[in-house]
Amino acid sequence: MFNRTLIIGTLLIGLFMPGAASAKLKMAASTNDLASIANSVGGDQVECIAIAKPNSDVHRVDVLPSYMVKVSRAQVFLKVGLGLDQWADGIIDGSRNDHLLVVDCSEGVPVLEKPTGTVTALMGDVHPFGNPHYWLDPRNGAIIAHNIAEGLAKVDPEHAEQYRTNAETFAKQTDEAYAREKATADGLSNRKMITYHRSWTYLGNAFGIAIVGEAEPVPGIPPTGKHLAELVGIIKAQKIPLFLQEPYFSNDAGQFLTREGGLRVVVMSPSCDSPDAGSYLSHFEQIINALAKTGS
User: Fold this and answer.
1) Span 155-191, pLDDT tens digits
2) Domain spans of the chain?
3) CATH superfamily of 182-295
């Protein structure tokens, strides 16, 4: 026969033990990259999920009810900003979460390719606030981490110093990752490449790899035969060894440039594999090693 008093006592002890009934602070992010950094900064106190799939085009994400439900349970939402993830606004609005703190992770980032004049449709998918793929420079990952830490401090002031300390630790890790991968990139015999879209500007700038051209004649416009033929001339003249492409674009351009220009194709996602802590920094090793293998 069970001792009812003992059972009730055990349950009560478990209920009132420090941390037994505490729940993690819920967060949502537009991308795995932001979520991975958030999970590093938040540590055991937070749980951050990502909306966009790692192999999908983060410019275009469907606004689904299931995403709204996830965000309705969150206390913080992390946006890429710079006009990249405008779709997130529909998810946030649809979540009807009046207590949600929205953090623009681009705050304080040195923005590249910011247009100086009027942006028109003839320029293609040009972002008026500048190139929004800033997370592809690991040094910007440190800025993102500090932005996230300050956001978490607002909703969870009790652990504010812990978040800030974690952000400082993460910033040091980004410096180490940058130095390590820069050494690998510096070993390339030809530090030039063609890309499909202007996703890789920050990566090239960070690691000293010149992007000589894109398969798209203008951002967001599919490659044309004329433009690809012009690229072949550039590839041959400068002996460019590789073509870096996102997985969600057609392989036709890469196949043509390989056949006619003799380069090799590297297919990589601009986003890291998972929202887990550590995934963001390990992604740089994956990218740079892939380029080194092809371009050495």
Assistant:
1) 999 999 999 999 999 999 999 999 999 999 999 989 9
2) 23-180, 182-295
3) Nitrogenase molybdenum iron protein domain (3.40.50.1980)
